[in-house]
Amino acid sequence: MSDLVGARRQLLITAGTAGAGLLLAAVDPGAALAAEKRAKQKKAKDKEVGAIEDLMREHGVIRRALLVYRESAARLRSDSGSIDPRAIAKTAKLFRSFGEDYPERRLEEAHIFSTVRKAGGPAADYVDVLIAQHNRGREITDYILAVTGKGAIGTGDVDPLARVFDSLDLMYENHATCEDTIVFPAWKDVLSERQLEEMGDKFEDIEREQFGKDGLEDAVAQIGWIEQTLGFADLAQLTAPPPPKS
Question: Is residue 26 part of a domain?
Fold first, then answer.
C-alpha cells in the first residue's frame, strides 16, 4: 500500500512540474517570439514560388511583349505613324534581357534542356527545335532593334516589320505552350522534390545575379509602361465581339 501511495505522489509531482513548465512557456516572451518566428518562416516557405511557377511567370511577361508586337503589326498596316518606335525598341530590349538572355540562355539552355534530353522520352524530341527557335528569335530581335533604332519607321520597313511581328508571335506562342505543357513537366518529373527545391533556389540566385534584384517585378513594370505608351493597356478593348446571329 505504501508503494502505491508513493507512486501516486510521484505522479502528482511530475504532473505538477510539467504543468508549471507549460505555464512558464506560455508566459515566456522569448518562447512566444520564437514560436511566432517559426510560424512566419513556415508561412513564407509555403508562399515561395517554385521553379516551374517561376518559369511560367516569366513566360507571362514574354506573352505580354508578344501581344504588343501583335497589336503593333495591325496598327502598322493601318496607320504606321501612330506607332512610337521608342516603345517598340524598349519592348525588344525587354524581350532580350528578360527572355533571351535570362530564362532562355541561363535557365532553359543551361539547366533544363540537357536534363530533358538525357532523360529521353517524347519531351526530348522538342529540345533541338526549341533551341533553334531561341536562335531565330535572337535574330529577329536584332532586326527589330535595327529598324526601330533609326528614330522613325520608314515606309519600306512597315510591311516587313509587321510580318516579322506576326511570325515571331506565332512561333513563340506555340514555343511557350510546348515548354509549359510538355518540356517543363517532363523536367519536373525527372527531379526529386529536394532537387527541384534546390533548382528553384539556384534560379533565384541567377535572377538576382542577372538583375541585381527581383527581375520579374521590374519587367512587369516595364511592359506595363510600354502597353500604356502604345495605348494597349485597356484590356476591355481586346474583348471579342459577339458572334454573328445564326
Answer: no
